[in-house]
Specification:
The chain has eleven helices and eight strands. With 342 residues, the protein is α/β, with parallel strands linked by helices.
Length: 342
């Protein structure tokens, strides 16, 4: 009887995993016959190898200098999740594009795996500028960036100190600092924050003395009657064929989950401090009308100086803008970068 119950449970889970919502053109693994792609690696300033995918329009003219765009994946994701889609679509429009795995994630170096380091994440974007700015087909004075979800805050952090990023767009941005300090809608109390910090601090002793690494947050691996709508939204992308991807050598049980002891470093991360100093370089903040993360794009827009623009996509949620090509404003992104990477 126990075996029958177990088999029934596995069957239900399998059916749930296969039931991906592919509406509105969900196409995370989009490819284009107009675009060439090659795997690349380059070092950041900490001599850590960063892995990326470099996309070229197939009709690019040899010997020309072209505008380029760096694309950063959502926090806890890898370049194959959302970033490759955006990079391919923008290469369709004539840009040289580079999707990258942030350090500690995907094919990039960094130990322990899934570690959080906002400073190194921002450095990876500047290292991507180093790489593109020395490429024969790229005009180093025309490099922009698209940061999706958490990478929106890392791209802003990089742009504040790296004026080589000439135009900055974020999509479904998460302020990973604010999200961890305060939670959504500032629902985390100071006492709850202190409890998280204490738990992580005590876990450092465990790991320092050889104990097992603990992981936190990320996306649930199963749904039940009590799973909240936001987790269901992430589950539909990260735990179904719609967007599931596990990098070689990694475990599907650990995808999206940062380490507990490093995740508290986000408490010291303030990407919107001094955001106004990015001006006069232009900024575009794209968010969904129904996105639970909308507050972060609205706050960044409020604090940024001109030129700036907030674009709210009607009917879209947070994860919708990861891969639903019928909702993602690729025409707007194309116009933004063509106008600002001249």
């Amino acid at each position: 009887m126990r075996k029958l119950i177990l088999l029934f449970g596995l069957l239900l889970n399998s059916l749930t995993v296969m039931a991906a919502d592919m509406s509105n053109g969900a196409n995370n693994f989009y490819t284009s016959d107009k675009v060439s792609v090659q795997k690349v690696t380059f070092d950041n300033q900490y001599k850590m190898r960063v892995a990326g995918n470099l996309f070229f329009p197939k009709d690019i003219a040899p010997g020309t200098k072209n505008p380029a765009i760096i694309v950063g994946h959502p926090m806890g994701a890898v370049k194959e999740q959302s970033a490759n889609l955006y990079a391919t679509k923008m290469a369709d429009q004539g840009f040289v594009t580079l999707s990258l795995d942030l350090s500690f994630w995907g094919e990039s170096e960094g130990q322990p795996r899934n570690a959080v380091s906002p400073d190194i994440y921002a450095e990876d974007f500047s290292a991507a500028v180093d790489f593109l700015g020395t490429h024969a087909l790229v005009d180093r004075n025309r490099i922009g960036v698209i940061g999706i979800c958490g990478s929106g805050s890392f791209a802003i952090s990089a742009a504040k100190i790296d004026p080589r990023l000439k135009a900055i767009a974020t999509v479904s941005m998460y302020d990973m600092g604010g999200a961890n300090r305060n939670a959504l809608r500032h629902s985390l109390t100071l006492e709850q924050r202190k409890k998280i910090l204490e738990e992580a601090a005590q876990q450092r002793y465990v790991e320092f003395t050889g104990g097992e690494t603990r992981y936190t947050s990320g996306t649930v691996h199963a749904l039940d009657a009590n799973t909240d709508p936001i987790q269901r939204e992430f589950y539909d992308f990260y735990r179904t064929p719609r967007g599931e991807y596990t990098s070689e050598g990694q475990s599907p049980e650990l995808t999206t989950h940062p380490t507990l002891t490093s995740n508290v470093k986000f408490m010291n991360f303030y990407p919107f401090a001094d955001i106004e100093t990015i001006s006069p370089r232009p900024m575009l903040f794209v968010t969904g009308e129904n996105a639970h993360s909308r507050e972060f794009s609205e706050e960044a827009y409020k604090l940024a100086s001109e030129p700036r623009e907030l674009l709210v996509i009607p009917g879209a949620g947070h994860v919708d803008l990861y891969d639903r090509v019928n909702l993602i404003p690729f025409d707007k992104l194309t116009t933004f970068f063509r106008n600002n990477l001249k």
